[in-house]
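Posting for a labmate who doesn't have an account.
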Amino acid sequence: MSLTSRAYGLSSQTLTANESETRFYSHYYARRLPAEVLSDAIASATGVPTKFEGYPLGLRAIQLPDAQVGSYFLSLFGRSDRVTACACERKGEVTLPQLLHLQNGDEIQRQIAAADGRLSAVLKDADDRAATNALFALSIQRKATDAEFAAIRPQLAASTAQERAAAFADVFWALLNTKEFAFNH
């Protein structure tokens, strides 16, 4: 089966004429990544694997053989119970607790700030533009545009290494909370 058809090639960017269209496939409908994929994406971007009780560190959420493994993140983001093969079993709506968890969750903050994580490695580069591009590449797979870097630059004008680290942690956190990171679009 080829995925080169017009329907698969549609952009998620809407036009004024089709922004409220929900029929006839006028554009791709953005949807949140499934719970397991989002958990793995955060772990991959930060370089800090998620620990699942009873399983070795480094096992990805998508590899979990048991759907009942205790994970607040996976439960919150609507993992499937795997009772049937029906996709309707998975909850895909975006909820306020999900948004609050992504924005204020201790686990995500721990992954971002980990001493052995990717942010620590990025901070070793003294060039702010290169470090910014590295964070963009880790999270949303592209370089920062000139406008994005111009918006970030004032936050990076830190006088100490600790302030610089905090500014880059904020940038990384913001990238992990973008639609570009958490949604198929």
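Reply:
Got it, the structure tokens are right above this. The CA atoms of residues 148 and 161 lie 22 Å apart.
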